[in-house]
Design goal:
By secondary structure, the chain is α/β, with parallel strands linked by helices. Helix content is about 25%, strand content about 15%. It contains 13 helices and 16 strands. The strands form four sheets. Strands 4-3-5-1-6-9-2-10 form an eight-stranded mixed β-sheet, sandwiched between helices. The protein has a four-stranded antiparallel β-sheet with strand order 11-14-15-16, with helices on one face. Strand 15 and strand 16 form a beta hairpin. Helix 1 runs antiparallel to helix 2 and helix 6 runs parallel beside helix 8. It starts with 15 loop residues before the first helix and ends with a helix.
Length: about 475
């Protein structure tokens, strides 16, 4: 059974984020030091104005790297409630079965911000950038007259990979990630609050915020200190996740508690950021999109660990929540993809960026957000991997410039098919969310799924190579990619 049942879906004219804050109150003040104890302060209840807008003036896109959909109570997980995230889900449109087209940061975010599958945007290995001719979401906003701002955590999100195109302000200060005890004041949510405080611009705003806060749970930072009962060095912890060493069951219990603590910290930071938008009079005019690039694996028994090199549900199922003016309250079942995000924002906000001569892989979900359609049309969703693979539970790497596939997957509302080059298909029912019961043979429906998968090949794109500087390498090492 899916984790959420479909709710009634009236089109709200009252801005749902105002209702969120009305129900939950303010977060700790901007000058507070909430991360030292890991315990949020008691909220102060504040009434917020309603909005009469049917279309948002501003758009904020938030990507929490490595956040499993199953880690959120609003997605049916066992986690404690996350007040601000749960409220977004309750009052916005939740896509219950949103999937990433890749299982690691670079290709997944490139798909999110182009509307193209990895084999079509070209950023499929660590030293490959998004093909320059591919349109980017920020460029569409910029052409429509928006102020475009990107505040990210560095690593694979560095500008040279193509992510900064279309952003007039791009801040990728990844050095904060190299400090295993990173202070809260270095995180992108804090930078976003400071930006909102100092902003003096009459144009509509497109703000993209990306953070590795959850991704970096291995660092056992201050707000997760109460969950730490292991003395392992960070490299040893990463060795467990990469399948390079055997670790006790207690380790897996501990790291999942720390992971959950990071999710709670993200919720607190999100609440403080939403409060800042309200303080500046922007919240009632803003569409907030909350998502992730991929998930994370903790199943040591099946050797489904970490991320990269697999295309199972623990890595591809991600949250995707829209809340703001003109968005109905609904939980929408059925597979959709991160490649749908760019065309959805184009359509919903009215950017006018669609190009029939260069169609995207994604489709617009805007009619579903508005309540014009109950759900998007059923279709096949794809995923792709050309760099990482797993062998006996350990994550391995291929050649850095290769774009040909090593793993690919096709998913519809009945089946989940994974193909590894030179190996038999791996097949599951779509409703087998933990994928514990592999199906032995293809039937008529899954044979058609395999046929569709077999027709997909990489696009002919120029190879844009990234020079790996010492600073970038240090960031990627801190993130566990090298």
């Amino acid at each position: 059974m899916p984790p959420l049942s479909r709710r009634p879906s009236p089109l709200h004219r009252c801005f749902v984020l105002g209702l969120v804050a009305l129900a939950l109150g303010c977060s700790p003040s901007d000058d507070g030091d909430e991360h030292t104890s890991g315990v949020p302060q008691e909220p102060v209840r504040t009434a917020l104005p309603d909005s009469t807008l049917d279309t948002p003036r501003h758009v904020v896109l938030i990507s929490i790297d490595t956040l499993n959909a199953s880690a959120l109570a609003s997605y049916g997980g066992d986690a404690d409630r996350q007040p601000h995230l749960d409220a977004l889900a309750e009052h916005g449109t939740v896509f219950v079965d949103a999937l990433s087209p890749a299982s690691w940061t670079l290709p997944a975010h490139a798909s999110m911000l182009t509307g193209l599958y990895p084999e079509h945007h070209g950023a499929t290995a660590p030293n490959l950038a998004i093909a320059s001719e591919q349109p980017k979401l920020a460029e569409c906003f910029q052409q429509a007259g928006y102020q475009t701002v990107g505040l990210v955590d560095g690593g694979y999100m560095k500008g040279p990979h193509g992510f900064s195109d279309g952003f007039e302000l791009w801040d990728d200060r990844g050095e904060v990630r190299r400090n295993h005890h990173v202070a809260e004041k270095g995180d992108p949510f804090h930078r976003a609050r400071r930006f909102i405080d100092s902003r003096d611009d009459d144009r509509p705003l497109f703000l993209f915020v990306q953070t590795y806060l959850v991704h970096d749970y291995l660092h056992f930072r201050p707000w997760a200190a109460t969950e730490q009962d292991h003395d392992d060095a960070g490299r040893e912890r990463l060795g467990c996740l990469l399948g390079e060493m055997e670790c006790a069951a207690e380790f897996w219990t501990a790291v999942q508690r720390v992971y959950a603590a990071e999710v709670r910290q993200v919720d607190r930071m999100l609440g403080r950021f939403l409060e800042k938008l309200e303080d500046q009079g922007l919240l009632s005019e803003t569409l907030v999109v909350f998502t992730s690039d991929h998930g994370e694996g903790f199943d040591n028994v099946l050797k489904r660990l970490h991320h990269g090199g697999r295309l199972h549900g623990d890595q591809l199922r991600v949250p995707m929540i829209f809340a703001g003016p003109g968005v109905r309250s609904a939980a929408i079942e059925g597979p959709v993809s991160l490649v749908d995000l760019a065309p959805t924002l184009d359509d919903f906000v009215g950017l006018g960026c669609s190009d029939e001569a260069a169609p995207l892989d994604g489709v617009s979900l805007a009619p579903t957000l508005r309540g014009e359609t109950a759900a998007p049309d059923a279709r096949t969703i794809f995923a792709y991997e050309s760099y990482y693979y797993t062998e006996d539970g350990a994550r391995k790497k291929r050649g850095r410039k290769r774009r040909d596939w090593v793993l690919r997957a096709a998913v519809d509302d009945a089946s989940w098919l994974i193909e590894r080059r030179g190996a038999p298909y791996e097949l599951y029912r779509f409703d087998d969310r933990d994928q514990l019961e592999p199906r032995a043979t293809l039937d008529d429906g899954t044979e058609e799924l395999a046929r569709r998968l077999g027709t997909r090949e990489p696009a002919e794109l120029p190879v844009l190579t990234i020079r790996e500087t010492a600073a970038l390498r240090a960031e990627l090492e801190a993130l566990g990619y090298l």
